[in-house]
Design brief:
globular, single chain, 23% helix, three-stranded antiparallel beta sheet
């Protein structure tokens, strides 16, 4: 259920995919929405996951994604509202829109005879193991405009995006087979973005992701792990901003040249569990953090913004919601590439002292 005056409208696209409109509290739009009358091909078959027996991890082989749209011009933008010359994915003008991805990495099936049977089934290791890539992938459009950035869209729009994230996290968490929900945004061609239109995505996985599995092991070893992290970071000189409900900091063992974590002051498992006061503060702090990246240099900084949420069925009393912004930009004209050590061995080498970067980011946050 959305709050803060944000309104939700539910409809479907021509091929049966769900579409959700979220209207700003101060919207100028009416409640009317056009019907999608396109003649669309059937949805692609759900992909298959294969287990890497060397690590136990699962890899979704989603070949249908190979032909997705790549950096279209404004007049062919698939995330813009439909027009007589552009039969895009969204029939009507909107503030924020969320719809099922046409070329998903997981789904559209939520259940299948070869779907994962349980978390134990997924943790077993063997040669040649496969499972259907059940799940859900959704696209979150932050604006109807072809270009722009979430950080510059204003507090009202940011609140609408937060309400959309919370609403979809809650809904996806109730769907069969879903083990973890992951809202995120990729920005910049250096990150691999294939659409300039300001947007993010939400993945609903049929397994607990590798990073979160490591986190589950960490919380077993360190009681009250996240509260201890928060207290340590506040005392460690790497805080960028601390408000009433959220603290942003450069982590002690930052991997990336730019890395910011944002953590709530109380234990909550996911963004759906945030309260009114937390969402109101987040709508101000979050876009300011994004703008902070863009005052560092004369051109926009590419980034990945990732909401790490507790899995749906395990660890919810231990894993606290946190947001992580990372960028490979280590100078105005230099990027950090994941070369041999990072890519082959998963062994990161940091380029910048976290305390030094925190000082730089604090100054930039003040100007953002």
């Amino acid at each position: 259920m959305v709050s803060a005056g944000v309104t939700k409208h539910v409809t479907v696209l021509a091929d049966g995919r769900d579409l959700f409109y979220f209207d700003d509290a101060d919207t100028t739009l009416t409640g009317d929405r056009a019907v999608d009358t396109r003649d669309l091909d059937p949805r692609p078959a759900t992909a298959t996951m294969r287990q890497d027996v060397l690590t136990g991890e699962w890899v979704s082989i989603a070949a249908a994604r190979q032909n997705r749209v790549f950096l279209p011009s404004a007049d062919a933008d698939p995330l813009a509202p439909q027009s007589p010359t552009n039969p895009s994915e969204i029939p009507s003008r909107y503030d924020v829109a969320v719809f099922e991805n046409k070329s998903p990495s997981f789904g559209p099936a939520l259940e299948d005879e070869n779907a994962p049977k349980s978390l134990q089934d997924l943790s077993d290791i063997g040669i040649g193991r496969t499972r259907t890539s059940v799940g859900r992938c959704e696209v979150v459009c932050f604006s109807p405009e072809h270009e722009g950035s979430l950080g510059n869209l204003g507090t009202s729009r940011m609140r609408t995006v937060i309400e959309a994230w919370a609403d979809r996290t809650a809904a996806l968490s109730t769907m069969p087979g879903i083990q973890q929900v992951f809202p995120f945004e990729n920005r910049g061609q250096e990150i691999g973005v294939t659409l300039h239109h300001p947007h993010g995505q939400i993945y609903a996985y049929p397994y607990v992701t590798p990073r979160t599995q490591k986190l589950l092991r960490a919380v077993e070893a360190v009681p009250s792990l996240f509260q201890q992290i928060l207290e340590s970071e506040i005392a460690g000189g790497r805080v960028i901003h601390s408000g009433e409900h959220w603290t942003a900091f450069v982590p002690f063992a930052a991997r990336w040249p730019i890395e910011i974590h944002l953590m709530p002051h109380r234990h909550i498992p996911d963004i759906a569990a945030t309260n009114e006061a937390e969402r109101a503060e987040l709508a101000v702090v979050y876009p300011r953090l994004l703008r902070t990246l863009d005052v560092l240099y004369s051109t926009p900084t590419p980034y990945i913004a990732a909401w790490h949420q507790a899995p749906v069925h395990v660890g919810r009393e231990d894993i606290r919601l946190s947001m992580q912004i990372t960028s490979p930009r280590r100078a105005a004209d230099k990027l950090k590439y994941l070369a041999g050590s990072e890519s082959a061995m998963g062994a990161f080498i940091g380029d910048v002292l976290p305390e030094t970067q925190a000082e730089v980011l604090r100054e930039a946050f003040g100007r953002a």
